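Dear Dr. V.,

Thank you for agreeing to look over these. As mentioned in my earlier message, I'm a first-year student in the group and I'm still getting used to reading structure tokens, so any feedback on how I've presented them would be very welcome. I ran two proteins. I've put each sequence directly above its structure. The first is here:
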Amino acid sequence: MAEHPAYPVGLRLAGRRVVVIGGGQVAQRRLPALIATGADIVLVSPSATPSVEAMADAGELRWERRPFADGDLSDAWYVLIASSDTEANTRASAEAERNRTWCVRSDNAEAATAWTPATGRSEGVTVAVLTGRDPRRSAGVRDAIVEGLRDGSLVAPRHRTRTPGVALVGGGPGDPELITVRGRRLLAEADVVIADRLGPRDLLDELPPHVEVIDAAKIPYGRYMAQEAINNALIEHAKAGKAVVRLKGGDPFVFGRGMEEAQALAEAGIACTVVPGISSSISVPGAAGIPVTHRGVAHEFTVVSGHVAPDDPRSLVDWPALARLRGTLVLLMAVDKIGAIALTLIAHGKSPSTPVALIQEGTTAAQRRVDATLETAAEAARTGDVRPPAVIVIGDVVSVGAGPGGDGGSGDGDGHDGPGGGPDRG
């Protein structure tokens, strides 16, 4: 039998009885995929890992808390044997053979009638790889294929008709490797990409030549008409049957005007998918060695847009309330307003010695960090020539961790499209 290859097949187990012998680490790894099939799973084991027990408590499987007994495999369509009891495994394997039930045996692949392939999934595609007696190679081949499908480097054209629409994709804080898997895949499948200047620009170089890339900062009609022009461009290309990606810095809904675009698309009857991105408000401080929360230091953090000064009538921020908070304050789009903000916070009770970090171009090769206090932040920004995009962190967490030597940082929100319209990069 070992000289012949296994016959690959996809089992449709929904509603069908599947028996798992053993509740240890092997079962813990295999059970989620079995649960996802909708199988009627019976676990036979005197003990189980906490994760497996949680699956039973959640009603995802039935747990018989005892050793294997003859007859347990009756009416089973599929069996997974994964216990540490070799004698019980042998008896269960023999029963499966008598019942003509396909059986995977984790402790002895040669005694099994089925092998578990290394599997992975990406956007409705299941990849299953078998390489005989080399499971590590199977996993390596699986990982390479799935990663290629996810990031678009392995092109698998769709032969069914695509539904035109728009994806609002959060590109993350700046490092092109920090975009989500789904965001990167949608970029690879796009016909048109409308990109903010603060999106991960390096990803645009990877797009195929036929993809039309539109710089949102150069859409005509002037600065204050830019958002309306962007909305119109999204609608126009989607109505032309194109798959459109709106690539934004950070997260589309964190100072990125993503909801305005989603509303415009909804009014035009165009399907819209929102792909969240890693917000610079959390990721940039973290990359610079600053946790926005830390046990015994900060139990909350507040993210604020600083694109208008505290005394500006357009400001919606309750600065006196922020000054009273004991946690972390994260400012986006605030480089040129940090002086006024610091004075306001101090005037309402914040200590002038509160630590401050200004992190420019976080998570990129150009990242740098300038440390100060609330009293000296404005001067530090000036003498340090700190420029947008930058994230400003105020609070005792600044003094926790790596300090100025931390190796990450940038900002999300200095947008091209007018006050309040910047993406989430600082």
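The second protein is here, in the same arrangement:
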Amino acid sequence: MKAAVYEGPRTVTVKDVPDAKIEHPCDILVKITTTNICGSDLHMYEGRTSFETGRTLGHENLGQVVEVGDAVSKVQVGDWVVLPFNIACGFCKQCEQGLTNYCLTMQPKAAMAGAAYGFAEMGPYQGGQAELLRVPYGDFNALRLGEDAAERQLDYVMLADIFPTGYHATEMAGVKPGDQTIVYGAGPVGLMAAYSAILKGAGRVWVADHQPDRLRLAEEIGAIAINTADQDPAEVVKDATLGLGADNGCECVGYQAHDPQGHEDATLTMNGLIDSVRFTGGIGVVGVFLPEDPGGAEAQGELEAQGKVPLDFGMLWFKGQHIGTGQAPVKRYNRALRDLIAGGKAEPSFLVSHELDLDEASSAYEHFDNRDDGWTKVVLHPNGSSRSAGGSSRHTLQELRQEAKAQGIEGRSHMNKQQLEEALGR
């Protein structure tokens, strides 16, 4: 089968690898039809983790079941499923508490917790940027989708990671109806955090970043954009709240945070949030921070390379703020978020800018890593389903959506590229 394989810093190649197969009676085998490139993939792509060469990337995966193990009783061949990036057993102490993000069974190192597809330090599991994916404990890990799954893959694939992760940030921050919320980072997860806060009924949501294309998307969903190249987010928020600050905030950037000039500072967003959020407010941190960063010494310093950053803890304590951290337990949220999508209440696919075949993964990683204008979220189709029957145009999804909007075509936000081209008569 074909797969996107990590060959070293900033080198991804698509090549033939051994077919994924059933290895345990509880496994299922999924033909991956839609898989995303995540911002977390970029940490590995850039060589800033311990990810091994020769491994397949990809932890945001959706597809159709093609084989099930003998012990699988719920999931059936032919089912459309989306797969939480957390690989969990369902029966360990952590899983029994709903903490599938810190499963003890699937993580082979006794002193660690948590497992994921194609992810550094989270077990030996191959990623889903491939034609096939082995899914352990398929009955527990696979979320089955409804009859609209094939047509709405761009929405449902977001349930694998970034929609639940953005939602998790708002949960840890304590976002409630009427709240005023500040989100640092307008990447895919930051946009999902802002979107989740809006879905929860937040009164005002600010999104801080210095990428204009991403800030435009924030404004399109009803958030207030703060361009950090021109404004200090903390001052903007305090000016709008009688000097008090936001009720809560979400950190959606992580340890490679950098200023508009490109200088890395792992404390930039965290200290910005401590300043931006009011006394006794909450902060949810889903941006990735690691205890070891192979590139950290050169990019920032020796302490940062060990995950030790100069947090403004005195001000955090003085203001009585509380912080929630860590990866999202996707299964805690994905069923409810799925039903919001199915009911037409949520369309997270608004942030998808590019649909590409798996063969284009190398170029896609390069563009996404460079933060090239318009590359806000990249979706790969390992089985070539990004192509329409007559060949695909080179227009981006955003361009096609704008054209569809101008022609009054309904449902454009969740249509994939082929559907938009057909609706436009191409």
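From my reading of the second output: Confidence is low (pLDDT under 50) at residues 387-394. The CA atoms of residues 351 and 377 lie 6 Å apart. Does that match how you would interpret it?

Kind regards,
E.
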